[in-house]
């Protein structure tokens, strides 16, 4: 246990979140090891997005702590999250629809930019150099994610699967240590799904980024995850390797119990 904590990039410690009478997360604890893909699964309403919102500091937790890279993030303000190295995508796409693909990705890069608002506005030499670098970085990400041909198109005009990939690129543009993906497979077609599995692996293997993946698409989760944590009604009911999770009776019960196994 202590060994695992030492190498963990993220430690979730006894997190409890209540909304009125609903206990969305009930004393949940687990570690996410560095440079791994950790799947976070569970039936609808299990608390997965709530945990992401705690990690992004959008929700307050009533008790517990979140340690990122060994430091508590309980006091870290929302706007500082990408600077400390946590990037994310949203269950419902959140992008600037009238802006181009490249501009959306640059928003991600700006989120961790060192240049302040004033130096950006005054276009100092340092801020101009930074802007040039960011544009180059954005373009190489677009190439990497097979988005170069859409760089100058407005995001809102593009097919859903492409928009989801833009959101993924934007999260990567902030150069996160950890990437939180909330249902990246939802609504994707077969070939987009296999691209996504490859992107997730290259993010881990080539970019050295740790991934926390919320997903209902069980084939994808089992294929790309090194480790899986299972929530049900706000409680952690299991964690283990994909093999262990697929054989775990309590996990099987949770999925069969509520008709939520349509993608299993
Ligand atoms: N802002 C909120 N206000 C009130 N209740 C909330 C809020 N956010 C989440 N909940 C409740 O907390 C519980 C967990 O919801 P959450 O969205 O985290 O589930 P989930 O595991 O992401 O589900 P899904 O797979 O459907 O996305 C649910 O009962 C939900 O209704
Ligand atoms: Mg959710």
Q: For the record, what CATH class applies?
A: Alpha Beta
Q: How many runs of DSSP E, i.e. beta strands?
A: 10
What fraction, in percent, of the residue positions are helical? Answer: 40-55%
Termini gap: 31 Å
The H-level CATH homologous superfamily, spelled out, is P-loop containing nucleotide triphosphate hydrolases
Roughly what is the average pLDDT, rounded to an integer?
89
Biggest β-sheet: count, sense, barrel? 6 strands, mixed
Strand content: 15-25%
| Ligands, deduplicated | adenosine-5'-triphosphate, magnesium ion
Question: How many alpha or pi helices?
Answer: 11
Low-confidence stretches: 259-264
What is the count of structural domains?
1
SSE order, one letter for each helix or strand:
HEEEHEEHEHHHHEHEHEEHH
Structural class determined from secondary elements: alpha/beta
CATH-level-2 architecture:
3-Layer(aba) Sandwich
Q: What is the C-alpha radius of gyration, as a whole number of Å? A: 19 Å
CATH topology: Rossmann fold
Net shape: globular
Can you describe what's shown?
This protein is of the alpha/beta class and 264 residues long. It has 11 helices and 10 strands. The strands form 2 sheets. A 6-stranded mixed sheet has the order 6-7-8-3-9-10, sandwiched between helices. A 4-stranded antiparallel sheet has the order 2-1-4-5. Helix 4 (101-110) runs parallel beside helix 7. The radius of gyration is 19 Å and the shape is globular. It starts with a helix and ends in a 7-residue tail after the last helix. Bound molecules: adenosine-5'-triphosphate (ATP) and magnesium ion. Magnesium ion is lined by residues 48-49, 91.
